[in-house]
Amino acid sequence: MMPALKMAQLHVITDETIQDRFSHLELARLAAEGGADAVQLRDKSAGSSRRLVETAKAIARALKGSETRLLVNDRVDVAMAAGAHGVHLGEDDVEPGIARRLLGPNALIGATAHGLEEALRLAEEPVDYLGVGPVYGTGSKADPLPALGLSALHRIIRAAAKPVIAIGNITPDRVEEVMEAGARGVAVIAAVVCQPDPLEATRRLREAMMRCRPTRVEG
User: Fold this and answer.
1) Which CATH class is domain 9-210?
2) What kind and span of H or E run contains 32?
3) Hey, which of 65, 112, 175, 201 has its CA 20 to 30 A from 34?
4) Is the pTM value of this prediction over 0.90?
């Protein structure tokens, strides 16, 4: 049985390339203290698999005993080596079915969808949630995709038979409208990692989510 997501998920995605004040490990610790449900280790410039595994292991040790789960972006092998709780997969990564076979039934597996067709296809795979976006656009990628907008997000949520976590320039003042569209939660990068105080930034997001409840979306 795949693990169920509790309501109002907050995922913080670590990134050292868009800021130079905090390491992946520091960001993970601060996000966990601030109330994040999951930390996604996102490191496109690790340079070597060994370095990435070492970083993931350090985060796993730091999160031990907390309720915050560690997901590794893209790399199933690194997640296995580090004893992470799961992975978040992009369109060029290993197929979700292979990830599920390798990581087992208790792993948390998410996959990114940028539109309705992709979301419907991924909803048929053994994933626990879909990361859908960018809802408002994003500045965390060199070649960003156009923003989906709330209407498209709502259509995808209505059609897809998996919980949806919204991604893409989500800020505390946008949380309510995203949740009202039916999202099960949000995943953020800049709203935490680029802030002067990532701990307080995570708390603000968590407080915004606690003030609202996800809308039940009927298909």
Assistant:
1) alpha beta
2) helix 24-34
3) 112
4) yes
